[in-house]
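Bit of a strange request maybe. I'm writing a small parser for structure token strings and I need a real example to test against, not something I typed by hand. Could someone generate the tokens for this chain?
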Amino acid sequence: MATEQVVELVAENLEDAAKVTRQINTPAIGLGVGGLCLGVAIGFFFGYRWNKEKIRAEAFKKSEEEDEKIREFYQQQAPMKVVEPKPSLDDVVEERGYVEAPRPTRPPVPVQEPFVAPVLPPRDFTSGGIAKRHVDREKDKNEGWDYGVELSKRTNNRPYIIHQDEFAQREEGYSQVTFSYYAADGVLTDEDESPVDNPDEAVGLDNLGNFGHGADDYHVLYIRNDRLEIDYEVCLLAASYGETVQGLSNDATD
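Reply from user aminoacidic:
Good idea to test on real output. This should exercise your parser:
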């Protein structure tokens, strides 16, 4: 009897449970479960990002604290360096006993005496050729010669007088030529006794009034032409070119 009552009670409860189950809206339950899952996922995502930023901030803060501790440690270990002010230049000079040296002045410019041509003895133009060397005609080759004055007058564009020793040294690359100057008619000839076409360009006509200058003979003159690279030995002749070379008489030359 009791068993039958229990069975009936269980059957009634099962029937009530079935009614409740039939009343449950299955689609609504599915949507609810889906919404719950989506909410959990979104919450997990933002929670993860927030937690990550928090961990990074804490790590950065901890790193700064460690750097500050290391900086303080080395500051405590290193002695404090006191920067003293730099002394002035006057103080250094006074401390070391320096003495200011006087400023050097330029040396005075030497004043050269004006060149005065030596007075030559009268020449004998009656011998008909180069006057031979006699005791009374010999002279010192350095008489009236001043190298400083001579160098100041020299230029590469014009022939200039050189010393007898300069001619003897034979300038490298320069040829040496002997000319003759017939003083009676003012004709300059080459080694073949032919008149020089342009004597001023070759030896400089203004130089021919200084025979004996820089030489040991009053009838010899040495001239250098840098443009032509030639050293000339010019010999003074007393005769006339027309008479001596061309065979002309005085009447013909007149």
